[in-house]
Write a structure and sequence with these properties.
By secondary structure, the protein is mainly α. The radius of gyration is 10 Å and the shape is globular. The two termini are 17 Å apart.
Length: 63
C-alpha cells in the first residue's frame, strides 16, 4: 500500500488525514503499517482527499 508516501507528498500528518476522512490518526497508522486495511468507503475517501485513485493507494500500476 502506498498510503504513507501519498500522505507525506500531500504534506499531511496521520492525524490530519484521519480528521479529514473521519477516523483517528491511529487508524491511518495501522493502514500504513499493514496491521489493518481501510474499508472500501474509507479507501474512496482517502483517494478524494489525496487527489489520486484507489489503485494508486493500493500500489497497483494501471499503465
Amino acid at each position: 500500500m502506498q498510503l504513507r508516501q501519498l500522505r507525506e507528498a500531500a504534506g499531511l500528518t496521520q492525524r490530519e488525514l484521519g480528521n479529514r476522512i473521519g477516523v483517528s490518526g491511529q487508524a491511518v497508522a495501522q493502514w500504513e503499517t499493514g496491521v489493518k486495511r481501510p474499508s472500501v468507503e474509507n479507501l474512496t475517501k482517502l483517494a478524494d482527499v489525496l487527489e489520486t485513485s484507489t489503485d494508486a493507494i493500493l500500489g497497483r500500476n494501471t499503465a
